[in-house]
Write a structure and sequence with these properties.
Elements: H1 3-10, H2 22-31, E1 37-41, E2 54-58, H3 62-66, E3 74-76, E4 90-96, H4 105-115, E5 116-124, H5 131-134, H6 136-141, H7 145-148, H8 155-162, E6 165-168, E7 171-172, H9 193-197, H10 200-205, H11 207-223, H12 225-229, E8 238-239, E9 243-248
Parallel strand pairs: 1-2, 1-4, 2-3, 4-5
Antiparallel strand pairs: 5-9, 6-9, 7-8
Helix pairs in contact: 4-8
């Protein structure tokens, strides 16, 4: 299933929990440098589009395009591997939490580099040694996530393909954008059906794994076992859970 098909299925209530997180947005916008024209690829409902620049958006899912707010950037239906723009049409191109849905991420990144002078990508390092243990949700409740990333290019391969530098993106404990890792200090949120519906990972692992994980987490929250095992997290303001920003050149 392509990213567009996936979000035509799961994206009906995406804007309920998936919003721009200002602290992450600031890091992304700083990486754009002084670019005045920006292409947002896999743009979804428009989160993280800088309000003070000339933005053009690309999004394959009709359902996601329909949820873009009034006044959002012009958005057309297209995919990362075939962008309908001439070489170097934009000062910068951005791709936010989307390249894991692309059939060929490296080809897509090179296409972004073809149409823009700078490329900024917000993604996840899910190929580093021990990454599955970095986040308690995958470590203790949802090991099936490992199967979702099998065969993907590593973060290093992605960066090398476009000559990008890599920097960590800390996740604040009260993150406004409800992506998979966002509730690392608010575990009860993962018991909420609405929260899970707006995170593609839950749909990808399937209903059996999802319900098993939810039951186990609910039990551990009620018994106090989760708090006991993860007490070191409760004093943290941010966590490094493998989110990364690639910037080229």
């Amino acid at each position: 299933m392509t990213g567009g098909q996936l979000y035509d299925t799961i994206g009906a209530t995406y804007t309920a929990t998936r919003r721009t997180e200002p602290r992450i947005a600031a890091q992304i916008w700083a990486a754009l440098g002084d670019a005045r024209t920006v292409l947002n690829v896999g743009a979804g409902t428009g989160s993280y589009e800088p309000p003070d620049r000339d933005v053009t958006a690309v999004e394959p899912s009709a359902l996601m395009r329909a949820q873009r707010p009034a006044g959002a950037a012009w958005c057309l239906a297209a995919t990362a591997d075939r962008l309908p723009f001439a070489d170097q049409s934009f000062a910068a191109a951005m791709a936010i939490a989307t390249i894991h849905h692309w059939p060929d991420p490296i080809a897509g990144l090179r296409e972004l580099q073809r149409v823009a002078g700078r490329v900024v990508v917000f993604t996840h390092d899910d190929t580093a040694a021990g990454w599955l243990d970095r986040f308690w949700l995958t470590r203790d409740y949802l090991p099936e996530v490992a199967g979702l990333v099998a065969g993907r290019p590593s973060l290093t391969e992605l960066a090398q393909a476009i000559g990008a530098r890599i920097e960590p993106v800390p996740v604040p404990w009260d993150c406004a954008d409800g992506f998979f890792e966002a509730y690392w200090r608010r575990p009860e949120a993962y018991l909420d059906d609405q929260v899970r519906r707006d995170i593609s990972v839950w749909g990808a692992v399937g209903p059996a794994a999802e319900q098993r994980a939810v039951r186990a987490l609910g039990h551990d929250l009620a018994s106090g076992h989760w708090a006991e095992r993860n007490r070191d997290l409760l004093a943290l303001e941010t966590a490094d859970l493998g989110l990364r920003l690639l910037t080229a050149p």
